[in-house]
Structure formats: structure tokens, C-alpha cells
């Protein structure tokens, strides 16, 4: 005859122990059950069992080794399915979900966040506290985070610095921007160029010429004063120059400072700058700025074409696409809009 044939509740030996123990022992079992539910997201099944044995039951001395094993058998029968389901849900099966969540924690740190507490992180990531702790300690072990103090405060670790160095040492703005420039070039059919500021000037570092017979292009390496043209004013408008700097930028040019200030204000209101017949007769230019991880303007994207194709309605359509692309480039450079 099988040993468990007459055991209640499906033959689980731990259930028999549950019927045999006294009310005090039932209380201990309930404590074990509560502790199990609390610890299961934090520990593997065997680790939780070992922890409970050493910290909950042994000091009480109400059950011996055999009954303790039965108690855990009962816990396994009653809880294992639900607990393991929760753990698997938490782990995300193949680990991809855990990686996503770890990256979410790292991305919770902003430019001004030297350190963050667990409470502060919980407001920025959609994670349960046990999950957050487990991922924090994993990231800390890998050097991606470090912690100190009581309560613990976490900061980005040296592994982040190594990745940042590797990224910046191989960084090429033209390569990063190329897919966005290509998309604009295909959508508009006009010349698309990338500019960066250099003192009082702007320099073209990438250009995709228009394939149309009537078009305008300058070429990589082309440099112009920053106060001239839409691509320059798209930079200057967000550089917040002082009046003294504006005056210096305009030295040697026939530029009315009051007109220039009005153009910069208009560019900030629209989110882009426009010029007509300014540097090339018959040409229209539209340009929007992009920003780096510090929030400073890093450059501008400009689109150039003949006025006969770029009427006001067409300018506004291109400007909308241009702003979207500039925003996407800012995101790639680590900029986070407020």
C-alpha cells in the first residue's frame, strides 16, 4: 500500500504535519508562510528555505528537524506554484525583461542626479521594491552603480564611465546624424546639411546635395559667420549670447543688431529659423537646432532650396519634419527635454 494513500489533501506529507501540530505550531507555520511570500521574490526556493530555517524556526525550538521538513513540504505544496509563477514573471523568462528593467534604472539618473535613494528611484521606475533591490545589487556588482550611506544612496559607477569613454572615443556626429539627414533628403528632395558652431562661425560637417537640376549646395567644410543665414541663427538663437557677444559676432558686417535680435526671437518662438535671398539670390533656407546631453545647442540641421519650390506652405511642412529630426538627433546625443 502506498505510504501516502490515506493522507488528506492529495497525499502531501506536509499537510499531515499541519494537522498534527499544535495551535502554536500552526502559528509558526503561518509565520513561515508569510515569510515565504515575502522572501520568494528575493531568494531562490532553496535559499529561502535555508534562510527561514536559520532565522525563523530554530530560535523558537517548537518543531524538530522532521516536522520542520514537513512544514516546508507543506509550504512547497501550497505556495510553490504561485511563488514560482511570480518569480518567473519577475525574471521575465529569458532575462530580456530583466535587462530592460536594469537599463530603465540606469536611465533614471539625470544630468543633475549625483546620487539617488531607493525611494527616489521608485518614483522614476515602474518596479516593485524587491525587484529594484535585486537589480540594484546586480548593477552594483558589475560596477554600473556604487552606493554609500544610510539610507543607501546610489550613483553611477565606473563601468558607466568606461562605456562613455568608449562611446566618445569612437563618436562621429556625422555618422550618428546620417540616417536622419538621409530621411529628410528623401522626403524633401532638397539639399540637407549639418552644421556645428565654432566660435563666431558655423561649419558644415555633412551635406547631402539635392538631386534636382535647380538646387543649392555649399559642401563639407563650408564656413560662414554665425549671425548670417538660417543655419547660423538657428544656433545663435539658443546660445543666449550677451549684447557684447552679439556686437562682436557682427563686427565687419552690415548687420542691424536690432533686426538680428528680432530674428533670433522669432526663431525661438517658431523652433526654427528661415532666411530668404540672404547668402544666395533666390535661395531659401530652413534650419533647426539640436542639443547635447548638457542641454547646450550642439548644432543645426539646414535644408536649402530655390524659392520657386519653397513657398510658405512648403516651408512650414519642411520645418515640421526638420524639427522632428532635430529632436531625434538631440535624443541620440543624450538630451532630455524638460
Detailed description of the structure:
- This protein is α+β, with helices and mostly antiparallel strands and 338 residues long.
- The protein is 51% helix and 15% strand.
- The chain is built from 13 helices and 9 strands.
- A 6-stranded antiparallel beta sheet has the order 6-5-4-9-8-7, with helices on both faces. The protein has a 3-stranded antiparallel beta sheet with strand order 1-3-2.
- Helix 2 runs parallel beside helix 4 (65-91).
- The radius of gyration is 32 Å and the shape is elongated.
Total DSSP helices = 13
**β-strand amount:** 15-25%
**Percent helix range:** 40-55%
**Strand order of the main beta sheet, please?**
6-5-4-9-8-7
Provide mean pLDDT, rounded. 77
- Which regions contain 5 or more consecutive residues with pLDDT less than 50? 1-24, 33-49, 51-68, 75-88
How far apart the termini lie comes to: 73 Å
Largest sheet: number of strands, sense, barrel closure:
6 strands, antiparallel
Q: Helix- and strand-based class?
A: alpha+beta
Helix/strand order: HHHHHEHHEEHHEEEHHHEEEH
Q: Please compute the radius of gyration using only Cα atoms.
A: 32 Å
Number of strands: 9
Which shape, going by the Cα principal axes? elongated
Amino acid at each position: 500500500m502506498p505510504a501516502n494513500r490515506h493522507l488528506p489533501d492529495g497525499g502531501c506529507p506536509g499537510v499531515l504535519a499541519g494537522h498534527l501540530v499544535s495551535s502554536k505550531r500552526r502559528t509558526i507555520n503561518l509565520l513561515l508562510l508569510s515569510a515565504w511570500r515575502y522572501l520568494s521574490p528575493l531568494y531562490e526556493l532553496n535559499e529561502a528555505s535555508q534562510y527561514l530555517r536559520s532565522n525563523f524556526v530554530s530560535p523558537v525550538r517548537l518543531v524538530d528537524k522532521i516536522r520542520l521538513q514537513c512544514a516546508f513540504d507543506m509550504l512547497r505544496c501550497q505556495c510553490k506554484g504561485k511563488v514560482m509563477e511570480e518569480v518567473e514573471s519577475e525574471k521575465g523568462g529569458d532575462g530580456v525583461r530583466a535587462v530592460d528593467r536594469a537599463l530603465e534604472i540606469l536611465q533614471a539618473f539625470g544630468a543633475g542626479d549625483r546620487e539617488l535613494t531607493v525611494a527616489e528611484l521608485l518614483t522614476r521606475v515602474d518596479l516593485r521594491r524587491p525587484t529594484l533591490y535585486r537589480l540594484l545589487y546586480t548593477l552594483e556588482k558589475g560596477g554600473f552603480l556604487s552606493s554609500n550611506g544610510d539610507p543607501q544612496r546610489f550613483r553611477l559607477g565606473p563601468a558607466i564611465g568606461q562605456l562613455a569613454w568608449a562611446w566618445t572615443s569612437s563618436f562621429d556626429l556625422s555618422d550618428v546624424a546620417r540616417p536622419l539627414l538621409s530621411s529628410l533628403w528623401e522626403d524633401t528632395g532638397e539639399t540637407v546639411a549639418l552644421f556645428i558652431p565654432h566660435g563666431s562661425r558655423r561649419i558644415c560637417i555633412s551635406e547631402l546635395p539635392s538631386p534636382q537640376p535647380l538646387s543649392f549646395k555649399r559642401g563639407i567644410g563650408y564656413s560662414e559667420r554665425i549671425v548670417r543665414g538660417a543655419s547660423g541663427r538657428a544656433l545663435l538663437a539658443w546660445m543666449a549670447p550677451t549684447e557684447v557677444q552679439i556686437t562682436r559676432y557682427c563686427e565687419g558686417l552690415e548687420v542691424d543688431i536690432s533686426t538680428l535680435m528680432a530674428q533670433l526671437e522669432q526663431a525661438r518662438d517658431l523652433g526654427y529659423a528661415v532666411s530668404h535671398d540672404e547668402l544666395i539670390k533666390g535661395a531659401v533656407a530652413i534650419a533647426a537646432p539640436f542639443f547635447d546631453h548638457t542641454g547646450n545647442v550642439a548644432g543645426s540641421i539646414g535644408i536649402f532650396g530655390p524659392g520657386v519650390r519653397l513657398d510658405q506652405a512648403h516651408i512650414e511642412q519642411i520645418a515640421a519634419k526638420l524639427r522632428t529630426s532635430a529632436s531625434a538627433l538631440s535624443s541620440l546625443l543624450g538630451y532630455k527635454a524638460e
